[in-house]
Amino acid sequence: MNDLVGQIILIVVIAIIVIFVLVVVARSVRIIPQARAGVVERLGRYHKTLMPGLNILVPFIDRLRPLIDLREQVVSFPPQPVITEDNLVVSIDTVVFFQVTDARAATYEIANYLGAVEQLATTTLRNVVGGLNLEEALTSRDEINGQLRIVLDEATGKWGIRVSRVELKAIDPPLSIQDSMEKQMRAERERRAVILTAEGTKQSAILEAEGHRQGEILRAEGDAKAAVLRAQGEAEAITTVFGAIHRGEPDNLLLAYQYLQTLPKIAEGNANKLWVIPSELTEALKGIGQAFGERGAAAPGAAERHAAAGAAERSQLLEDAQRAAGAAVDAAGDAAAAAADASTEATAAADAGESSTGTPGAEPKTD
Questions:
Q1: What pLDDT sits at residue 291?
Q2: Residue 355 clears pLDDT 60, i.e. is over it
Q3: Residue 12: beta bridge partners?
Q4: Around Cβ 355, how many Cβ atoms within 10 Å?
Q5: Is the sign of the CA dihedral 208, 211, 216, 217 positive or negative?
């Protein structure tokens, strides 16, 4: 019985020793992750800062404080109301980028470095934006960010914190100011649209006028060249006809015959109401008659010459003479009929004028 009790006591003692050893080892060995730092206090005082890796502590004497993150941190603070220089309340949302560079200073120099950074950013922001009006605050974000970063970096340097960047995430003016700004922007855009439309209309009118001017110039140049070419062609045609006539040596009989052929063309057209018979018509007919008379008188003396020419030539000449005489008679008849029609129309028009205006020379009646 005594042996059994002794064995139990021995087992308990061994278990206690093993547990104690495990606790000592657990409190002595510390593994620090990368980008972390641990502050060790020995008997309540700062002893050292543990770096990433395996570290050995004295159990029950050294105490490890909570690990501090050495990476760059991004903290977005809630919107803060700020009064501008022109007495407008704007809501500004701020984002701060900072990094802990000294774990000991961040632990012992400030109680809560995150809350301190937030309060410092708020007060600095109000000081900076308070000296600017609304328009400057909306358009000077880079300047505001730079001033905030300088002030925060100087103030947090002794806390072991480095502020790398400060950004204004949003600047929200009052709703009434937003409506006014939208109306102003809309009016500005409408003004620009009207100006651009006017400039486009102006340019279009200028280009259209320029095109019309160029078209008129080209059209005038084309007409001038066409007139020159037409005149040159007519001159060459006249020269050719004139030369051909002189080379052919025409006699009076041919000229009178061509004159009679041209007379019917004078009476062509629906607008010819009155056609005057030229006085040269009788002379032309007389010349043709004399020519045929001379040919008839000269026929007995040149019988042998006409016999050699043949009966076909004599019949052709007779037909041409008869055709010319018939055309002349028809032209004369058409001219006489046209003259009679014109005289009748003139008489009717005169009668109608007299009937509408009253008897010539009579005085109008008065009531």
A1: 55
A2: no
A3: none
A4: 9
A5: positive
